[in-house]
Structures are given as structure tokens and as C-alpha cells.
């Protein structure tokens, strides 16, 4: 019979990380372990990567629901157990990853875990003052990244335009692909005019220019925008994704891309539901981590690798923390890889 336990853990950022929703200095998360009582020598690790302030999981009942899930995991088959967690995206993600880890990732096979496959990722530049953002971008370019994603919308817009102009003065699109992420910072009234100014700098895409919850306005913007629009928080807003719901939203808005964050869109099952709907409509996608520790990042990387993506993915958040879990994950230029000879070094945790 399956059994489980959990432990809270606080991750500390190396530098304050800014988004349009505010500045982050730490992030709380929860690790889970799952094992079979008949063979307790084998343990699957997962991460219930709660993201406070984003998604419906930010709920005072969260830890109580997590504790109940650990206590009842053996009461039914794993698929039924996971379906009961459908409305708690990060909990489903955590238990899905622990169960996959326990089973050797048989549902998402790839060469990633053996070191035979790497994933091209974008370099992420967080919001800050213009000088700080330019310094961070220079560091990413020197490290070998050829796809850069910038968080925008929190500082002066003209300063952000100057930053983009400085980059394009040195590198054209064939040398550096630029993506920007507004995290819903624009309004229906100013979004198009701002995107028209951004378009001067030959951008690949803009993520979530409007806040989630304005599908009609977002549809009009997608149709008129000179820069490809990618939906992000629009997907997170779904408490529990269904095939019908994914079909309706994508049919209404018709974005060029969608961004899939497994811990925020219903785990791997939810991400795969969105991916299926996007493929049927010729909509592109990429997968992004959402401030998970290396435990969650490894799980997302294994899931991502199983699809053999060509487009750069958004799996570059593993180096953000001072106390991340030492792991076999390796960043080699713009390639995320896994050292099959490496080892995990888990901290002492207070299990519950």
C-alpha cells in the first residue's frame, strides 16, 4: 500500500526578484515522499510547489489538504487519487512527480535522466532598474544564451524600451531571440500601443500582456498585435482544466503560443490537456518552471524532454536560490542537462 509524508521548506533568493506583482525574497514550498509499504527502501520525491499570490492554490486550507492527501494516498488507485487533487494544481503536481519518480518515469521516457539528452532553455532576466537588467542580460549572453526572456511592466516603460534598444543595437534577431513577459501589467486601453512600440525591437513574443480574465479583450489584442502573444496566467486562472474548457478558451482567444507551467495548470495531466488543444489548433507551446526547487525542476525537465522540444524552454529558475537542493542538474551554456553520475544531497527536513 502506498504511503506518503510531507515537509515544508523555504527557498531564499540570491537577489530580490521582481515581477509586476512585486519583489520576491523567498518562496515557501513543500516536499513529499511516496513509498510502498511493502518496499520502503524505494522512495519517490516530489514537490508541491505552492506559488503564493498566483493560482487558486493560495488558500489557508492548503497544508491541511496536503496532510489529508498524505494520509489517504493508499485508499484508492493512484489515478483516482490524483483526480481527487485536480482542483489543487500544485498538490497534484507534487504527487504526480513523486509517483513518477517512484516508478522510474515510465510514463514520460527520455534520455534526459541518463545524460543522453539536454534541453535548450531561455535565459531569464528579472525586473530591476535598467542598469541592473542590462548587467543581468550581459551575464546571460556571456554564458552562451541565445534566447533571452525579460520580465517587463514594473519599471518605467521608456526605460524598458531603451534596454531593448541597447540589445538590438548589438545583436539582431538571428543572434539573440528576445521574449518579454508582462505578467498582465498592461490594460485593454494601452496594451496595443505599448506592444506596437515593443515591436520595433523584433521580439519573438510577449507573454500575458493583459491580466487574466479578459478573454474578449485578449482575443482582440491577439488579432491586432504585431508581436505574437503567448497566454500564461490565462491558463493558470482555470481552477481545474478540462478538455472542453481548454478548447473553448483557445478557440475564443486564438493566441500564437501558450506557456505551460505544470505546477500551476493541473500538473502533467493539465499541461498535456492544454498541449493537445494547442496542437489541434496549430498553436505553439513551451514549458516553463515556476520557481520550483531543483526537485520540481528535475521533474518538469523530464516531462519536457519526453516531447523532444526544439524551441527554447523556460527551465532556467534553478540557479535563483541560495539554498536550493544540490542535484545532478547542470546548466551548460543554454543547455539544461542531467549528470547521471551526480547525486542528490537533501537537507535535514522536518517530516509530517
Short description:
The chain is of the alpha/beta class.
| Ends apart, CA distance between termini | 19 Å
Structural class computed from helices and strand pairing: alpha/beta
CATH architecture classification of the largest domain = Alpha-Beta Barrel
Described by strand count, sense and barrel closure, the largest sheet is: 7 strands, parallel
What is the CA-atom radius of gyration, in angstroms?
20 Å
Would you count the extended β strands for me? 13
The CATH superfamily label of the largest domain reads Enolase-like C-terminal domain
CATH first level of the largest domain: Alpha Beta
Share of helix, binned: 25-40%
Q: Would you tell me which CATH topology of the largest domain applies? A: TIM Barrel
Describe this structure in words.
With 352 residues, the chain is α/β, with parallel strands linked by helices. The mean pLDDT is 93. The longest helix is centred in the first third of the chain and has 14 residues, at 89-102. It has eleven helices and 13 strands. It is globular and about 60 Å long. 34% of the residues lie in helices and 23% in strands. The chain has helices at 62-72, 78-84, 89-102, 130-142, 157-170, 191-198, 215-224, 233-236, 243-253, 267-280, 294-305, and strands spanning 2-19, 22-36, 39-48, 119-120, 123-125, 147-151, 177-181, 205-207, 229-231, 257-260, 284-287, 329-332, 335-338. α9 (243-253) packs across α10 (267-280). Strands 5-6-7-8-9-10-11 form a seven-stranded parallel beta sheet. The chain has a three-stranded antiparallel beta sheet with strand order 1-2-3. It has a three-stranded antiparallel beta sheet with strand order 4-13-12, with helices on one face. It has two domains: 2-102, 2-Layer Sandwich (Enolase-like, domain 1); 112-338, TIM Barrel.
Amino acid at each position: 500500500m502506498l504511503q506518503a509524508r510531507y515537509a515544508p521548506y523555504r527557498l531564499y533568493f540570491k537577489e530580490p526578484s521582481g515581477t509586476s506583482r512585486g519583489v520576491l525574497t523567498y518562496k515557501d514550498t513543500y516536499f513529499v515522499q511516496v513509498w510502498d509499504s511493502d518496499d520502503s527502501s524505494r522512495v519517490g520525491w516530489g514537490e508541491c510547489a505552492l506559488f503564493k499570490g498566483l493560482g487558486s492554490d493560495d488558500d489557508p486550507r492548503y497544508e491541511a489538504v496536503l496532510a489529508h492527501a498524505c494520509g489517504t494516498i493508499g485508499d484508492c488507485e493512484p489515478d483516482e487519487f490524483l483526480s481527487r487533487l485536480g482542483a489543487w494544481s500544485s498538490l497534484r503536481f507534487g504527487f504526480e512527480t513523486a509517483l513518477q519518480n517512484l516508478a522510474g518515469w515510465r510514463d514520460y521516457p527520455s534520455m534526459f535522466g541518463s545524460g543522453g539528452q539536454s534541453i535548450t532553455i531561455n535565459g531569464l532576466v528579472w525586473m530591476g532598474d535598467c542598469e541592473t537588467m542590462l548587467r543581468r542580460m550581459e551575464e546571460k549572453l556571456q554564458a552562451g544564451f541565445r534566447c533571452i526572456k525579460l520580465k517587463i511592466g514594473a519599471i518605467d516603460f521608456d526605460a524598458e524600451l531603451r534596454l531593448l534598444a541597447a540589445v538590438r543595437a548589438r545583436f539582431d534577431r538571428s543572434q539573440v531571440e528576445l521574449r518579454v513577459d508582462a505578467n498582465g501589467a498592461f490594460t485593454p486601453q494601452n496594451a496595443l500601443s505599448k506592444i506596437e512600440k515593443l515591436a520595433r525591437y523584433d521580439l519573438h513574443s510577449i507573454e500575458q500582456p493583459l491580466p487574466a480574465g479578459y478573454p474578449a479583450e485578449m482575443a482582440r489584442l491577439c488579432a491586432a498585435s504585431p508581436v505574437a502573444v503567448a497566454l500564461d496566467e490565462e491558463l493558470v486562472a482555470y481552477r481545474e482544466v478540462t478538455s472542453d474548457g481548454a478548447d473553448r478558451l483557445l478557440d475564443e482567444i486564438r493566441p500564437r503560443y501558450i506557456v505551460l507551467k505544470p505546477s500551476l495548470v493541473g500538473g502533467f495531466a493539465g499541461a498535456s490537456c492544454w498541449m493537445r488543444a494547442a496542437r489541434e489548433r496549430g498553436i505553439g507551446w513551451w514549458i516553463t518552471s515556476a520557481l520550483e526547487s531543483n526537485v520540481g525542476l528535475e521533474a518538469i525537465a523530464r516531462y519536457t524532454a519526453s516531447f523532444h522540444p526544439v524551441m527554447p524552454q523556460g527551465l532556467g529558475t534553478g540557479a535563483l536560490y541560495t539554498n536550493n537542493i544540490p542535484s545532478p542538474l547542470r546548466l551548460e551554456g543554454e543547455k539544461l542537462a542531467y549528470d547521471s553520475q551526480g547525486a542528490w544531497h537533501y537537507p535535514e527536513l522536518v517530516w509530517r
